[in-house]
Amino acid sequence: MNLVTGGTGLVGTHILIDLLKQNKQVRAIKRENSNIELVNAVFKHYGIEDLFTKIEWVNADVLDIPSLESAIKGVTNVYHSAAIVSFNKKHFKKMYEVNVQGTTNIVNVSLSSNVRKIGHISSIAAIGRGKTNLFTEKNKWKTDKKNSYYAITKYSAEREIWRAQQEGLSTVIVNPGIIFGPSSWHRSSTTLFKQISRGLSRYTPGTNGFVDVRDVSKSIVQLVDSEVSSERFILVGQNLSYKEVFEKIANAMNKPVPNKEAKKWMMELAWRYESIRAFLRRKSPSITKETAMTACEKYFYDASKIEKTINFEFNSIGESIKNTAKFL
Length: 328
Known about the structure:
The protein is 44% helix and 17% strand. It is α/β, with parallel strands linked by helices. The protein has a domain at 2-179 and 212-235 and 300-315: Rossmann fold, CATH 3.40.50. Helix 5 (92-111) packs parallel to helix 6.
């Protein structure tokens, strides 16, 4: 039996798909009030809605140990993708609870059960920032003001996974870049599609690493099935400028291409203005200081380690964007 945490999320949904395609038994954690219709819609998108009925859903929470102990009974492999993604410092406490304490709980119940291996979905954010703009798995975490609150929680969660390894549990970690894939308009990177579909006119000057969600799920399933252990892998299909990415999204959505650069000083004004506007409207800001600054930085990631380790090939980001746009 394979247990997937965050089963209703973008990555969790695709892990379920890959496992079920291999005729493996899957159990997925969801909260009691979670809506699984989006998961069903993604299965229909790929024409495999018949596999959706084979998922064993269980109500559990990574912060509720008794529910996890019940969910993990009979489980051999755990795919831990449950996490909160936010770049709003007001959400730091909740992020820390779910991303770090939740991972601690997953590790502890796995250690006390007969779990063979944990595959942990981390983030390139956990690689950390520093003076270099080129990152590999060998980069060491350094305290830096450029590290987001989200990055801090994901790095701390990884430390719990390494603890599991030291205490006798086989583990593997993947560090995906910005993930594109079929999801709700309101979730993480898919909000870019929403903004561009509404007529976004400016692009930011930064560069970042991007990856297809299908590559994230495919790679973690292969790694968990393999003898690879105590390793982490950067998952970045392509390093692209936001200008290139925005153009690809606009073309896929048949919308005007953003053709004006948003200068760094403009982004600094934008996040301050949005902070005030959100405060007055009592809503979460659409742009934060963290997202504004990251969008202006140039980061590059080397994913050659996974390509060599399991002979892995990534989908192009253009193809990933088309797949996402088709779903939306």
